[in-house]
Fold this protein.
Amino acid sequence: MNEMEQLSRFRDGVPSGVTPRAEQMFRTALDNEISAEQHVVSRSPAGVPGRGLAGLRAARSSWRYVIAIPVAAALAAGLFAAVQPSGTQPMTVQLLAGRAAAAALTQPDLSAGQWIYQVLEWKTPGPHRAGRPDPSVQSGWMTADGRITYGAGIIGNPIFPYNKIGSLPRDPAELLAYFRNLDPVKTDNNSVVEFGKIESMLFGMVLPSWLEAEMFHALALIPMIQVKDHITDIAGRAGIAFVLPETRQSEKEEIILDASDYHLLAHATWDNPATPAPDIETAILQEYPVAQLGSTQQAISPPSAAELAGEKIDYYQQYLYYTPKISSVAPGQWLYRELRTGGKEQQIWATADDSAQAGYVNGTLTVCQRTAPCAASEQWLMPAGPSFTLIYPQYPRLTQADIEQLRKLPAKQRMAKLAKLAKALQPARPLPTLPEYPQPLLAKLNTYATGCTNVTGDCNAVNVAANVLTGYGNYPSLDASWFLALADVPGAGLQYITDAAGNQDIEFTFPAQDGVTGILVNATLLNKGDVQYEGYIRDGQQTLVLNQTPVSGPGVQPAS
Amino acid sequence: MPPDSGQIPRSDADLIGCSRTEPEEFTELFRRHAPDIQRYVTRRLGSGVLSGSGADDIVAETFLLAFRQRDRYDPSRADARAWLYGICTNLIGRHRRAEIRQYRAFARTGADPVTEPFTDRVDDRVSAANASPLLGAALAGMSARLRDTLLLAAWSDLSYEEIAVALGVPVGTVRSRLSRARSKLRKILPQETRS
């Protein structure tokens, strides 16, 4: 099977068909459009602005997706930017590099986990472009090292590990050589590789000032680079650009700097170098450090140790290719757990959604349903918290009977039948779930009553997090922002401990008076890029999860 | 109404031409092509769990943008798919992060987050969608331009010439991008025995 066949198989899991929602959105938008056209004497080629889909969009379920600010306002702001000449001296690549490097050196140095707020404006290409700008504005947050981006992140991949930055050569020619050697696919055009790496590091992360300065000096050493003066970026700001002309290996690209103070404005790419306007341009409208994810108030606040650990966990959960030990269990799946609380070990069986629990009482296995009277006296692992289905929305699945029926069909009919079944199953709107964003998540978790008499230090939220991490089975796939939320608990700290089972852990510490004061994550594994929750600390006593394995029913021991 | 409505199947270009004066005709274009466009968008961005029903928005927006630009459609192109895939690919480009995220999720867990709402775990095998998770890693690690070209070639059934129209680049660029993308894939994917 070659790679194109593999790709084609990959697609075949998705049936062809329109969702009712998409069709409804299109029809309503079309009706709006048609009625608007009938009221406009001569239709502008760009259509009728201000109508159409925008008004139809309900609030998005995912804040990470798009946080739009009015495009018109941003454009208006751009129009007032004064156009200043870039000086009377003829601009050369070296001169521009020198000025840009000098400007870079005036910037403060930030730590790797510092949150940066960004407002970006985009223009994307199209066969229909014909000189018509198609910009959209998005805002979002990223960490200075570019590892974590929310909202308007331009680049999803980590571009260069921040902890290696210190060891980069402090000489522009050596820097270029270093970048050339990074390229796994040996391209025969080094200029393209070097330019690409510099561009992605300049725009995908916030570099220490010395490195940003070296980057500009390095650009000037790339043989093909040219300077283009007296240009404007998509936001209408006067700029001057480093230009990589089109080559056999690449399209024409520009790194645009502000014409007066030489800070980074935008980068642009042409598919066809003959057209005056670029096909893709991303302009940085605003970019500044903020105290935390979600804030738009300018502030430099070095991240706490807990925040750095939270970000590290977030990063590993989102981007690394580790396989969770338990992935995607069904709500009714029985899980075997070995817990250790203060030297005492306990074997407990519970369903993933905690609807039933079982254990040995005086040598007899007793199963207790949550709804049964015995539940009142049972020591529930999950005394309070969001339901399993709220954390892991249960989208309907095909029944076993459906699958058997599909199996019997010839391959061609199978896809059509599957599409039909899937369409019938798909809910009209996404199922309810918890907020993704750390602060709203924390606020929501605080609404569960976990018996805290003193709710300072987000006592309830921390208890809920410990309950969920211990109780709901597939903790590795919990949305990463849980740990970012924990790191945002007022007074949260971090320390390294050796737990009662002998593991090296990091402990998120919390100031709760009568709740969980510590949440343990395995430090050895974390250093290898794996996230494993080990347990929690309450009343000075550790509760550790020694083993957690899906089994076929209560009382069943996992196969060793 | 045009004289040939009803009996003779009309080309996309005819439909688009008619829709200049009879806007309602445009819904026929939606009926014809939206199912495949939705499939393409859903495969790239996910259906809802990951992207907040973003696929629906993009499908609707693709046809709305097309409608607004119908005056400028080149009537010599009977088949409108290249035009529609081009618009839709540009819109997908704005959600690169969501796309990369789902490929990574697939690479990490081996469970395809996109097909999950449509299938059951067991059913993954039935629907023959058991692609290698490494594919997710490969797609996530590719530049957007290579990925656009590769996925149009693999999933849209467009010819190289049509992909060139869709992406607004010369056909030579499509060929060279495709060969670069495929060689990147070959480097990552284990090569099964070729028959």
Remarks:
- Chain B touches chain A through 103 residues (CB under 8 Å).
- The CA atoms of residues 119 and 127 of chain B lie 8 Å apart.
- Residues 1-7, 120-129 of chain B have pLDDT under 50 and may be disordered.
- The two ends of chain B are 54 Å apart (CA to CA).
